[in-house]
């Protein structure tokens, strides 16, 4: 449950114009936007946090606020508008790049110093060789190639204690090391084999606080054309059986969300093909769909939607020809969704 | 639009040049041609190149749609294997779009059927009656154009299958501009426009046509009544306009199963899966390039495939001494 706090005195001029102020840390506050609306809640029932305020901004050391999620409105004691000068844009892009690079460095360092040193992915991978259950699980999901399974280093955690949505229980879990761009293991993901609830199916071993991007073919760099597949396991299925052209890089997304790290990673891509689960096409109570939200974040003009009416890995195992679907991709606008 | 004679009049040197270009294009794009649907007859029946049109003729109930669907499935398979970015178009005036993929779903499942490189044009379940009558030839051709633009990038069309000429609703606009609104003129007009569509979309077109049921005017033989050139129902243009014409008859509809037929050189027993094919027309071909022209071939439907077996064929022919 979020708690709301009084507006810090540095932002007194915004009193009455913003609501639902939350403190993130001693320097950062979130609230509704004074310019573009005061919606109380997001559709995930969290309070509106589109306007972000820093008591001391990194750039000037003075209070600064900005609507990040919607209108781009900027507020500082001397200036408040939604008009971006070229200098401001350049400064913002540079700052964003700097922050992204810093975040990349942090993830890289954590991967090197913690995850790679602990090397637990290897431990689980070695256990897989002895696990009949694990092998059967992989086989049932179409991972029948030992060569690929070794490449992806699928492992097993036999007695994973899952703190589930409704209860805590033990279940075997299949592990997949999330190998990032530099061929470093950034995370070890778990697929709870006997999940008691839909929300319990995936867990991460490390609390990295970052969105991890999975490269099932481990290209080591970002190519010009990318196919984004929802879910790491699904991206593996597409890499193994999708028959995509060589110049298309397959990337596994962690869930549906298109986060800042992913956008930063793909900023220079010319075309982004997007393949999400069927529920991404179902409108929420406002009539908006996740697939369109993702497309807008990625840029509608460079996004292509690969239509698949089932989860893509299940569909491929049932004879769905992913290459044909890729060839028949549509623009987001052609879906007729909001 | 003002008529521009320059578009049509070409000097011989220009034509010679474009002839060479066309020949080169055909050689380089032989993979775009649609092979005949009976594998065993591909040496006898030339493939249909982009810009060419073929008509399948048979009486009602003798398997035109079945042949179209079989051929279309082969085209889908070839396109999938080639990994080429293109779609096949299957237009039907007879079956709903859902019916058209029913067999594919039954055989291969929904996931496989939903990823075929195809667009289906026709009446869908739940459509109202007025809309159904709007899919005349002008609108069908417009719908193909729409199809091409309904993907992220303009989509090439690999083949068009259209089932069938006589079931096409009347086009009110074309009826007005023709001096006589007779149905046969509409049929000729529809055939001609479909023929032109092969050039517009640079792909082979296969369509089907009814032949007469009550009377066969030019049968191959009175006991083997494969429809001939005069039997294309209601309009001669259906035979005259296309590049290739293939006639079929499902023998069990012409004679009871088990009956022994003796006609000219033929002597055979009617089986329920026996089909006769008469290769009637191949524009621009000679008997050297279209070896099967004017000939009749027996086919059998086995596991939903049309099979030609030369030994079976020979077994149905009487030797001279037998005669």
Question: How would you explain this protein's 3D organization?
Answer:
The complex is a heterodimer of chains A (338) and B (323). By secondary structure, chain A is of the alpha+beta class. Chain A is 28% helix and 21% strand. In chain A, the strands form 3 sheets. Chain A has a 6-stranded antiparallel beta sheet, with no helix packed on it. In chain A, strands 7-8-9-10 form a 4-stranded antiparallel beta sheet. In chain A, strand 1 (22-23) and strand 2 (28-31) form a beta hairpin. The model of chain A has no long low-confidence stretch (mean pLDDT 85). Chain B has 323 residues and is of the alpha/beta class. Chain B has one domain: P-loop containing nucleotide triphosphate hydrolases (Rossmann fold, 3-Layer(aba) Sandwich). Chain B is built from 10 helices and 11 strands. Chain B has helices at residues 12-28, 64-82, 97-108, 110-113, 129-132, 137-149, 172-177, 183-200, 237-240, 310-315; strands spanning 53-58, 87-92, 118-122, 157-163, 205-210, 244-250, 260-263, 266-269, 274-282, 296-302, 305-307. Chain B has a 9-stranded mixed beta sheet, sandwiched between helices. Chain B has a two-stranded antiparallel ribbon with strand order 7-8. The longest helix of chain B has 19 residues, at 64-82. Chains A and B meet through helix 8 and helix 9 of A and helix 4 of B.
In short:
Chain A is of the alpha+beta class and 338 residues long. Chain A has helices at residues 86-118, 120-128, 132-140, 146-152, 232-241, 260-265, 290-298, 312-317, 322-327, and strands spanning 22-23, 28-31, 51-54, 64-67, 74-76, 79-81, 155-163, 168-179, 185-192, 202-204, 225-230, 248-253, 271-275, 303-305. In chain A, 28% of the residues lie in helices and 21% in strands.
């Amino acid at each position: 449950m979020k708690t709301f706090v009084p507006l810090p005195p540095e932002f007194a001029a915004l009193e009455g114009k913003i609501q639902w102020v939350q403190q993130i840390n001693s320097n950062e506050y979130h609230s509704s936007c004074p310019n573009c609306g005061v919606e109380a809640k997001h559709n995930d029932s969290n309070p509106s946090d589109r306007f972000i305020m820093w008591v001391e901004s990194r750039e000037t050391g003075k209070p600064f606020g900005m609507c990040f999620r919607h209108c781009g409105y900027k507020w500082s004691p001397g200036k408040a508008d939604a008009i971006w000068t070229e200098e401001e844009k350049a400064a913002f892009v540079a700052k964003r790049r700097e922050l992204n690079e810093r975040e990349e460095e942090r993830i890289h360092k954590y991967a090197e110093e913690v995850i790679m040193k602990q090397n637990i992915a290897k431990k689980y991978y070695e256990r897989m060789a002895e696990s009949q259950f694990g092998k059967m699980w992989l086989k049932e999901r179409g991972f029948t190639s030992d060569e690929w399974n070794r490449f992806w280093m699928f492992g097993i955690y036999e007695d994973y204690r899952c703190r589930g949505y409704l209860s805590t229980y033990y279940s075997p879990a299949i592990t997949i090391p999330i190998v990032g761009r530099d061929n470093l293991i950034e995370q070890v993901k778990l697929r709870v084999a006997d999940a008691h609830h839909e929300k319990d199916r995936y867990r991460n071993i490390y609390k990295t606080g970052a969105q991890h991007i999975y490269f099932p073919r481990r290209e080591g760099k970002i190519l010009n054309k990318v196919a984004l597949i929802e879910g790491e396991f699904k991206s593996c299925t597409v890499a193994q059986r999708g028959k995509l052209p060589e110049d298309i890089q397959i990337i596994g997304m962690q869930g549906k969300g298109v986060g800042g790290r992913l956008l930063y990673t793909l900023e220079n891509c010319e075309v982004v093909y997007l393949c999400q689960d069927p529920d991404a096409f179902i409108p929420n109570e406002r009539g908006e769909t996740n697939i369109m939200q993702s497309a807008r974040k990625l840029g509608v003009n460079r996004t292509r939607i690969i239509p698949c009416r089932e989860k893509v890995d299940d569909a491929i195992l049932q004879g769905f020809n992913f290459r044909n679907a890729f060839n028949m991709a549509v623009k987001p606008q052609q879906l007729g969704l909001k | 639009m003002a008529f521009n004679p320059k578009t049509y009049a070409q000097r011989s040197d220009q034509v010679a040049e474009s002839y060479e270009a066309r020949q080169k294009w055909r050689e380089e794009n032989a993979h775009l041609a649609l092979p005949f649907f009976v594998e065993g007859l591909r040496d006898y029946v030339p493939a249909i190149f982009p810009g060419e049109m073929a008509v399948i003729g048979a009486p009602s109930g003798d398997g035109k749609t079945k042949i179209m669907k079989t051929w279309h499935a082969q085209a889908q398979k070839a396109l999938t294997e080639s990994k080429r970015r293109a779609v096949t178009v299957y237009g039907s005036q007879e079956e709903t779009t859902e019916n058209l993929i029913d067999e594919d779903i039954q055989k291969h499942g929904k996931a496989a059927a939903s990823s075929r490189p195809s667009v289906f044009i026709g009446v869908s379940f739940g459509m109202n009656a007025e809309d159904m009558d709007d899919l005349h030839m002008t609108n069908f051709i417009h719908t193909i154009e729409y199809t091409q633009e309904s993907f992220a990038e303009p989509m090439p069309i690999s083949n068009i299958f259209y089932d069938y000429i006589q079931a096409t609703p009347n086009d009110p606009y074309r009826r007005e501009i023709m001096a006589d609104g007779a149905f046969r003129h509409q049929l000729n007009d529809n055939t001609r426009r479909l023929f032109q569509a092969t050039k517009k979309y640079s792909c082979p077109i296969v369509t089907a046509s009814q032949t007469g049921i009550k009377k066969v005017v030019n049968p191959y033989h009175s006991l083997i009544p494969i429809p001939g050139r005069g039997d294309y129902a209601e309009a001669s243009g259906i035979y005259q306009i296309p590049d290739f014409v293939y006639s079929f008859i499902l023998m069990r509809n012409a004679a009871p199963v088990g009956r022994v037929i003796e006609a000219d050189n033929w002597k055979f027993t009617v089986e329920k899966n026996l089909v006769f094919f008469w290769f009637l027309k191949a524009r621009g071909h000679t008997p050297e390039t279209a070896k099967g022209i004017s000939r009749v071939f027996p086919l059998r439907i086995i596991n939903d495939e049309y099979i030609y077996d030369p030994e079976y064929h020979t077994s149905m022919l009487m030797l001279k001494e037998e005669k």
